[in-house]
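thought: fold this chain, then report.
action: predict
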Amino acid sequence: MAFFVRPLTHAMSIFGRIFGKDPAEENNPQSKAEKESALPAKGGGNGYSFKWYDPGPENPFGIRVLDCRPLTWHVVATTKDKAIAERYNYLRRSDGKDLVSAPINDSIRCRVSLKFPHNGAALEGIVSKADSMDVKWDIYIYDSIFLFARSWTGELCYRAVATVGPSEIHITEIECQSSDANIAASNVYFLMGTHAMRRVLPHRLPEGTPEDPMMIATLSFSLFGKLGCYASFEDITRIPITPPKA
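observation:
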């Protein structure tokens, strides 16, 4: 596909679902899968060293970020649950059409304005598929609606309405769980930039996330796998995404 595509009451909802901290999300299929993730370092050892970068010559993003790569680039995603592994493998053959009418529990629709460069090609079908369990998302588009699903479980997390023009993709509405409303735009922006456009971007952390580097890097890997390179508490949607250089 030719696609130029890289007080908060429930702020910890994503964090809670991933690590099983929120009893209200106990039956969420995403939490059941992700809490089975093992994080052994490739080559052994766990002496991770993380660094915060302020905007400057070593940081092109214009916001303060934590470099999570010492963990996210050096761990392997696994599951102890055979059913989850089989589900993941089964989903590698899916074209995502079953998600077009799939419900999102306790959903809310949020008005947004997220813009991405585009080369004008028609978009329909698979945008991005995880090629290993270290990649946590699959993305599809049907009738100008982007569908963002967890690669392990197939759970639809975001449904984004877009206008696809000759030089730009403009997402104007996102449907998501109500508990994720305050971070949905940032997550969709990150997923479009990294998974679809193959750019490097930081992801935004939920408000209330402890400022502990190991915890942040572990969360980054659980949410975004090996593409969770950098994390920030600041607004990532103001980081410009430009077309690839000719």
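thought: worth noting. The chain is about 20% helix and 25% strand.
final: tokens above.
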